[in-house]
């Protein structure tokens, strides 16, 4: 089989296409022919060497993949050859609270990922693909999709009539918009592109703000709601945190996920966060149990992920460069076969 491999922190253009033996399913395992893998910002950081000395090499990158079961190992129940499946981001986090041990099992980081024609998965670390989704669509769920689900539903506890603010048009933000609307929430969405703002409106965003022309978007969101939003899905990091604090109501929450916006401002509004009794909640994907709940919700509502572009398996470098450009709206996917 062929797979892509990082042999060091050499960047996108150093990704190597290599040959390896097709793996065999052992006890409690499934051998899956992967048909699609999606890219996340975390994968881009990994390829660029952003995790430094902690990074395992050589490494097959990417956490997210979907495909078809080709072989079933001994003592596996509930799966058969031909089933379409999705791998979980953390293969060792089956359910319950996170722990250091569980979070050392991330695909495409601690262990080999999904940019491969075949991969063996633990049977208890995959879920069946919802019938209404293609494999390309299903491959977008394990990281960005589940992170948004955890931020809005599991940890954010968003209810009908509440307001969620999303930032930008990357995978997590688009999923968060869709999930918030499923919950019956109002969504305020930000972007720097008027063309992308039109697409956010088409997806159901109730209010849109251009953060280039409205740099005090947090203050504006507070004015629009009258008291502030219930939840900000914070993907910018400390670079946008001040405006997120301004946007959030007294007693509201900020789901802290990404680091896209660069360095922090000279002064963070942490005293305001204290005075308003806001909660800053770190979010790192979720468990296999959470992924199943997310898939069940998508199946119930017939919701489909937003896929920006699909690249061929021999265009993996182009796919990473496209993601790095920031031009995408939704998810970037590689069709493996």
In the predicted model, the low-confidence regions spanning at least 5 consecutive residues are: none
Biggest sheet details: 7 strands, mixed
Summarize model confidence as the mean pLDDT: 95
| Protein structure class | alpha/beta
What percent of the residues sit in helical stretches (DSSP H or I)? 25-40%
Q: Which range does the strand content fall in?
A: 25-35%
Q: What is the approximate shape?
A: globular
Q: Please tally the β strands and state the result.
A: 15
Kindly provide the radius of gyration, computed on alpha-carbon positions and rounded to a whole number of angstroms: 20 Å
Termini separation (Å)? 12 Å
Question: If helices are DSSP runs of H or I spanning 4 or more residues, what is the number of helices?
Answer: 10
Order of helices and strands: EEEHEEEEHHEHEHEHEHEHEHEHE
What does this structure look like?
The chain has 337 residues and is an alpha/beta fold. It has helices at residues 41-47, 135-138, 141-154, 171-182, 194-202, 217-225, 238-247, 270-275, 288-301, 316-325, and strands at 2-5, 16-19, 29-39, 64-72, 84-87, 118-122, 126-128, 163-167, 186-191, 207-210, 229-234, 248-256, 279-282, 307-312, 331-335. The strands form 3 sheets. Strands 3, 4, 5, 6, 7, 14 and 15 form a 7-stranded mixed sheet that branches. Helix 3 crosses helix 9 and helix 6 packs parallel to helix 7. The chain is globular, with a radius of gyration of 20 Å.
